[in-house]
Each structure stands twice: as C-alpha cells, then as structure tokens.
Design brief:
- The structure is a single chain.
- Helix 9 runs antiparallel to helix 10 and helix 15 packs antiparallel against helix 16.
- The protein contains 16 helices and five strands.
- The chain is an alpha/beta fold.
- Helix content is 68%, strand content 8%.
- It is flat, with a radius of gyration of 52 Å.
- A five-stranded mixed beta sheet has the order 2-1-3-4-5, with helices on one face.
Length: 418
C-alpha cells in the first residue's frame, strides 16, 4: 500500500524546482553576507556622488579665485614686457650710438692721416696745339708727370732693399682735382687748414723740331727752374718727374739714379746735396754714396770713408754699422769688420742682413764656428736670404760638412740665379 505524504510546505514543488534549476542565467541563492552587500550598495554610490560634487565645487572655487587674480597677473606681465621692450630699445640705441662713434673715430683717423701726408700737386702743363691734338692735353701731361714720379719712387724703394732702408715720407703726388669729388674735398680741407703743400707747374713749347719743357716749383722754399728738351713727350714727362723728386725727396732720386746704372749722375747729385743741405740727411747721403762706391764701382776703401762719415752723424744706426762692417771686411780689415758687424747685431738683433754680414766677416777672419752660428741666425730670421745661404755653405764647407755645403750652395744659387 502506497502512502501519500503531504508536500513539505518549505520545499518548492518539484516541477518548479526543476524549472528554477533549468532556467538559464538564473541566479543562485546568495549567502546572507552577499545579500547584505547588495543592500548597502545604494548607500556607497551616494557617498561617491557627494564627494564628486564637493571636488567640483572646490575646483570651481579655485578657478574663480584664479580668474579673479588674472587681471592683476596680466597687468604685471604687461609691465614686465614693457620694461623688457624698453631695455631692448635702450640696448639697440646704445649699440647704434657705439657703432656711430666707432665709425666717426675710424673716419677721423683716416682723414687726419690723409691730411697729415705731404701733398705735392702737379698743375696742368701748358702744351702747344700739336701736342694737344696728339692727346697730350695739359691735364694728361700733368698726369704723365705724376705717373713717372711714382715710378721713380717705386724703383728707389725696391732696389737693393737689404742695403738701403729708404724711409719714404707718405706723400700724395696728384693733379689738382676739378669738380666735386672726395679728392677735391680733401684739397679744400688742406687749403682751409693752411696745411703745407708743394706745387709744380710749367709749359712745353716747340723748338728745333722738338719740345722744350720749362718746369718750376710754384710754392715752397725752392725756386729752381728745370729745362728739358726732347722730341718725345714721355721723355719730357720723365725729366720733369726727376725734377719733382729731386726737389721733394733728393735722396730718393739719388737712389733711383744709382741703381738705374747712372752712378756718375748719382754721385754728382749726392755731392751737391751734401754741400747744400748739411744735417741728419747728410748721413743717409754718405751712406748711399758708400754703397755706390762699394757695390757699383768696386772701391771699398773709399766706401769706408763715407760710411764712417755717416756713422759719426748717426752712431746708433744698425744699417750704417753693418754697411761699414761689410766695407771693412771687403777692404781686408777683417777684425774691424767683425767688430762693426757685431755692433750692428747689438743695435738690431732682428736685422737678418746684419747677421749675414757678421757671418761673412767671421768667415773671412777664419772663425768658422761662429760664422756658422751667425749664418743660421740669419736664415732663422729670413730663410730665403741668398747671402745667408751662401755664408752657410762656406761655413759648412770649412767645417767639413760637404753635403750640407753643397745643399746650401744650391739653395743660394736658386734664390739668386744671377
């Protein structure tokens, strides 16, 4: 007999239980603590929302505060930018003013130096119509004389520079400028300041199928008149240039004549100069005369007398001392030559020529060791000095260094093939 028990009211019906078990995604029974958690969740979300609201409110408050102070900050920034702009403007003005001052100083230096130069003007030379038709106008003839004057000065300053140290005075040789130009403004400034200047002028006339130039100094202390005759206008210009240089820089003309092969003219010019213009310049005249006698005429004994005359006037001149040492050595007085060469080196230890002459004098006196040292010192100062290499060759040969002797001799020949 089957007993039927009544259903347990605490248990769900079996079909309902299976339905619950079989319902997909149905939540499983939660433990009491999970249920408690779900019941308190709404309270946690409210708390977070309240905190967020407070944070936003604080941020808005800070933003409002910053916006309130923004105008004052912008005002301070504007003031700072204005100050910076003023500082930049001041710096720019300072730089501009400094540049202007430097420019003015530089220009003033060049203007002062330019005005301090001696000025020699060649006035336009009057010429006959036949020369003007050939292109030799008065201005062209004056410019040809200026060109020849500068050529004479260049020739005097570059020839035998190791023997003569020509102190050519800064001089402007030019034709007076016409119209408005920098040159005419400079000439007007010289005239306004009453600066000394020398002017030459003259005229060319026809005579005996040729031309005669009468050229004279128009200002200054000289009053001589030069007369030149030639059928070639360029020759006349050269003769006029010689007159200009002879009047303004006599020793320069003497140098040019001497080393242009016109030694007799040079000697006669120096003789006249010494008798007419005694003084310091006479020492340079004697020095040049001695060089002509020693190098061009082969008369060292007579050269010694002129070098000694120059040394009495300028005893501290290294150039005159070394020239005297060379002349004494060539004349055969080797001891005196060494003494004067040593004096020249003592007066100017950086003068390569003085060391070369000392080496030469020591070699001639038989002191090859010191001669070798002097030659090396000369080449240390001037490696391409022909005389220094030649002296080195001789000293090395006398010392037994034949290879060095040959090498130095070859170098001396390469540097001075003539």
């Amino acid at each position: 007999m089957t007993s039927v028990l009544p259903p347990d009211p605490s248990q769900p019906p079996s079909g309902q239980a299976r339905a619950i078990e079989e319902r997909p995604g149905a939540p499983s029974p939660s433990p009491p603590d999970a249920l408690a958690t779900r019941q308190t969740a709404p309270e946690s979300k409210g708390h977070r929302s309240s905190s967020a609201h407070l944070g936003i409110a604080g941020a808005l408050s800070r933003t409002r505060s910053q916006l309130t102070t923004l105008p004052s900050r912008l005002s301070r920034l504007g003031a700072n930018l204005k100050g910076l702009s003023e500082a930049v403007s001041t710096l720019r003005s300072l730089v501009a003013n400094s540049a202007l001052i430097v420019l003015v100083l530089v220009l003033s230096f060049f203007v002062a130096r330019d005005l301090a130069r001696r000025a020699v003007f060649i006035e336009p030379v009057s010429v006959p119509p036949v020369l003007a038709q050939r292109g030799y106008t008065p201005e062209v003839m004056a410019n040809r004389i200026v060109d020849e004057t500068l050529r004479i000065r260049r020739g005097a300053s570059v020839r035998n520079a190791e023997w003569i140290r020509s102190n050519l005075q800064p001089t402007d040789f030019e034709v007076p400028a016409a119209g408005m130009s920098l040159r005419s403004a400079r000439q007007m400034a010289r005239l306004f300041l009453s600066l000394p200047e020398t002017r030459f002028g003259g005229e060319v006339t026809e005579a005996d199928g040729g031309y005669v130039l009468r050229f004279r100094q128009l200002s200054g202390t000289y009053s001589e008149v030069a007369t030149s005759s030639s059928t070639d206008p360029d020759t006349i210009a050269h003769l006029a240039a010689q007159f200009v240089v002879g009047q303004t820089e006599p020793l320069v003309l003497a140098e040019f004549l001497a080393f242009d092969g016109r030694t007799d003219e040079a000697v006669e010019f120096l003789r006249t100069f010494i008798s007419r213009y005694p003084g310091t310049d006479t020492a340079q005249a004697h020095n040049l005369w001695g060089i002509i006698l020693m190098k061009e005429k082969g008369e060292p004994l007579q050269a010694v007398e002129h070098f000694r005359a120059a040394a009495r006037i300028l005893p501290k001149s290294a150039t005159i001392a070394r020239n005297l040492g060379a002349a004494l050595t060539i004349a055969g007085d080797h001891g005196a030559g060494v003494e004067m060469a040593r004096k020249a080196v003592a007066l100017d230890s950086k003068d390569a020529e003085a060391h070369a002459i000392l080496s030469f004098a020591l070699t001639m006196s038989g002191n090859y060791k010191e001669a070798l040292d002097a030659a090396r010192q000369c080449l240390k100062l001037a490696p391409n000095h022909p005389g220094g290499n030649l002296n080195l060759s001789v000293a090395l040969g006398k010392s037994g260094d034949l290879d060095g002797c040959i090498a130095a001799a070859q170098r001396a020949a390469d540097l001075s093939p003539t």
